[in-house]
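Protocol step 4 of 5: obtain the predicted structure for the target chain.
Materials: sequence only (see below). No template structures provided, no constraints applied. The aim of this step is simply to have a reference model before the mutagenesis design in step 5. Sequence pasted as it appears in the construct record:
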Amino acid sequence: ELGWISKVYVNRPAVVKHAEEIKRWRRVKGNWQAAWLLKAVTCIDLTTLSGDDTPSNVHRLCFKAKHPIREDLLKALDMHEKGITVAAVCVYPARVTDAVNALKAAGCNIPVASVAAGFPSGQTPLETKLAEIKLAVEYGAREIDIVISRSLVLSGQWE
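Step 4 output (structure tokens):
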């Protein structure tokens, strides 16, 4: 049921007021700041979406995904044995197998995400979008970032 979308209301003055309040909050410092920054790293999808991606640059990206923070910094924070990695590696469907193999060889369980459905414009036929999604999943993607048609959104055609 998508009827609720047309009924969404944003209280813009309240949002602006809250944003101004956030700017006045005290900054997090010391160990808390380091903890929040390390947590932020674990929420990142490390991504390469270049037209000239190769297995070797995907392999380098996967190494960086497993080791996003320099070891000396992790040791200084006594976090070197916590297994801090990024949340996922995101690539085009054609590079999913490369990423899955690189992460498997590195002995880690970081999921591979893939953009699909006509990234970045979303201007491909539905059948092509579905085939691309299916292939990315078959290749080992555990997450799909789907692109929807902006023209349909702009015209309110949510169905």
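Step 4 remarks: The longest helix spans residues 126-139. The radius of gyration is 20 Å.
Proceed to step 5.
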